[in-house]
Amino acid sequence: GAVVSQHPSWVICKSGTSVKIECRSLDFQATTMFWYRQFPKQSLMLMATSNEGSKATYEQGVEKDKFLINHASLTLSTLTVTSAHPEDSSFYICSARWDSNEKLFFGSGTQLSVL
Amino acid sequence: LAKTTQPISMDSYEGQEVNITCSHNNIATNDYITWYQQFPSQGPRFIIQGYKTKVTNEVASLFIPADRKSSTLSLPRVSLSDTAVYYCLVGNMNYGGSQGNLIFGKGTKLSVKP
Lengths: 115, 114
Known about the structure:
The structure holds two protein chains of two kinds. Chain A is mostly beta strands. Chain A contains no helices and eleven strands. Chain A is globular, with a radius of gyration of 13 Å. In chain A, 35% of the residues are buried. At the A-B interface, β4, β5, β9 and β10 of A face β3 and β4 of B.
């Protein structure tokens, strides 16, 4: 149980375009979802926290207008990287949890390459 | 946030038991200790979680001393497929906790050799 599906697994786009990444909890209702990014050989960095039906809370230094997060239902959150540039190239990972649970369940990640 | 400290890397051989210790001196009363495993180009995977004493599941054991200022992840009889980065997180997302269990440190890179 507790499966989180993330799509796409990888995406290549041109500079200036926008890219949407989907994160779905398949067998539980995710009251809270989290988005991380990870650069090569580095640890995961928390970008934002989203609760269903509420605006996302962004970590310091993360541009909310650049990384749009929508958590429209208890099973789906999306991250849109707007006007992507090469420096946005990274591995993006979502995770989800339900209330009272201290564990995080992660998606398989999305490798974004911006040319 | 409860800061965690782990060894940067560890080497082992197949069939050996591996123990990875995490220090968390300022752990709060309500904090849990959670370990995740990450393979390259994949999202982390939950391994084990505990609050005190000992927890065991089908893949690992977690030892937590009485003062809870450290914890040790024990992997019995490792294989090549256990080569990965292991992260220790400490916190509590409920009860107004510190949410330290959302913050990943550098982790421990375990290399298992044949």
